[in-house]
Automatic annotation (TrEMBL):
Keywords: Cell cycle, Cell division, Coiled coil, Membrane, Transmembrane, Transmembrane helix. Residues 1-21 are annotated as: Disordered. This is Cell division protein FtsB. Residues 58-85 form a coiled coil.
């Protein structure tokens, strides 16, 4: 009697796996990968050649570097020279402008001098006796003032006018009118006036002190000549501060 086959004996024999052909998409992907790898190797080799081999051919020589440095030094020197020249030109132009401004001021002063001379000394000038042409006031401190009085005369040509000048100030104090005499302004009893002596004109200067609660409104200049009668001229305090009149030249 023949025994029936066991399950192990009835199992079919195993066969070797067979390779399946690549699909068109997989084949294209494989080719693209290979091309990229080849390109990467080519670029890498080219870069190494540039660094270790080809770069030396394009690298400037020591002589070329020295020549370039020499040209750079020349350009820097030229730039520094041009900058210095420009600064010198600017300074010279500034000095020239300042000189021209001073010359213009001198010319204006000379024209004013000529006009003043023609007014008092010229052949067509109106003849006038001793007078105060102008009075200017400038503050020296809170209560002290400096005055400059311009005296003129062209009536007696060549004659010397000599005498003394005194100043008085009119104003209000504690709501009342008051006149401060020369002695009050000088804070000195029997104070002598300022001496003057000239032929055609002279500037006489002096100082005066006002009380703290005094408000000036007018100032009077009194001239006491050595011969002749005294004369007095009054000026507004505000006008004397403004100094609108042209100051004559120094004699």
């Amino acid at each position: 009697m023949i025994d029936p086959p066991t399950p192990a004996q009835t199992k079919p024999a195993q066969t070797k796996p067979q390779m399946q052909p690549l699909s068109p998409i997989a084949r294209s992907t494989l080719y693209a990968t290979l091309v990229l790898m080849l390109l990467a190797l080519a670029f890498g080799g080219w870069g190494l050649w540039e660094v270790f081999g080809g770069a030396d051919a394009n690298r400037p020589t020591s002589a070329q570097l020295q020549d370039q440095q020499r040209k750079i030094d020349q350009l820097e020197q030229r730039a520094a020279t041009l900058a210095r020249s420009d600064q010198i030109s600017r300074d010279a132009n500034g000095d020239l402008q300042s000189t021209l401004a001073e010359r213009d001021e001198e010319i204006a002063g000379l024209r004013a001098d000529v006009a003043f001379y023609e007014r008092f000394v010229g052949a067509t000038a109106q003849r006038r006796g001793l007078a105060v042409h102008e009075l200017q006031l400038q503050p020296s401190s809170e209560l002290s003032w400096h005055f400059v009085a311009t005296l003129t005369q062209n009536l007696n040509r060549g004659a010397v006018n000599a005498g003394r000048l005194q100043v008085s100030v009119e104003g209000t104090r504690a709501g009342k009118l008051q006149r401060l005499a020369w002695a009050d302004l000088r804070q000195q009893p029997n104070a002598p006036g300022v001496e003057y002596s000239f032929k055609y004109f002279q500037q006489v200067e002096g100082d005066l002190v006002l009380p703290a609660d005094f408000k000036p409104t007018r100032v009077a200049v009194r001239l006491v000549p050595q011969s002749g009668s005294p004369m007095e001229q009054s000026f507004s305090w505000a006008d004397s501060l403004a100094g609108a009149a042209v100051t004559p030249p120094s004699p």
